[in-house]
Design a protein that fits this description.
Elements (H helix, E strand, L loop, with lengths): L3 H28 L9 H29 L4 H17 L12 H27 L1
Length: 130
Amino acid sequence: MLLAVTGLYAFLLGLVFVVLFAHVGISRTNAGVSLGDGGKPELIEAVRRHGNFIENVPFALLLMAIVEANGAPKWWLHVLGVALLAGRIAHPFGISVARMNEPARMIGASATALPLVALIATAGWQALRG
């Protein structure tokens, strides 16, 4: 079965991943730190931006694939995919060592959590009805 919608968001989120991954490498080079964050705020931020992405996106894509394979409407998958993508783009701009309550962080976290909860609920509903 072709998972075209999940594939689209895996591609788009993959582009975000590459940017965050590259930013960590560039930040490590600029800071002269091979491993860890060296206690340098810029590197701590870069590592957490990338880490937070890795902590959330694979599970979301796995759920999206399951829900798509189980026959969820494409429009529903696109709604959730767009929200997730927007959240994952916004969130890194709000990660700051100095400030916790950045709007981009709160928007990004919410726009990640809501699709995850909706995907979990959809997967559960599909499993129980199936």
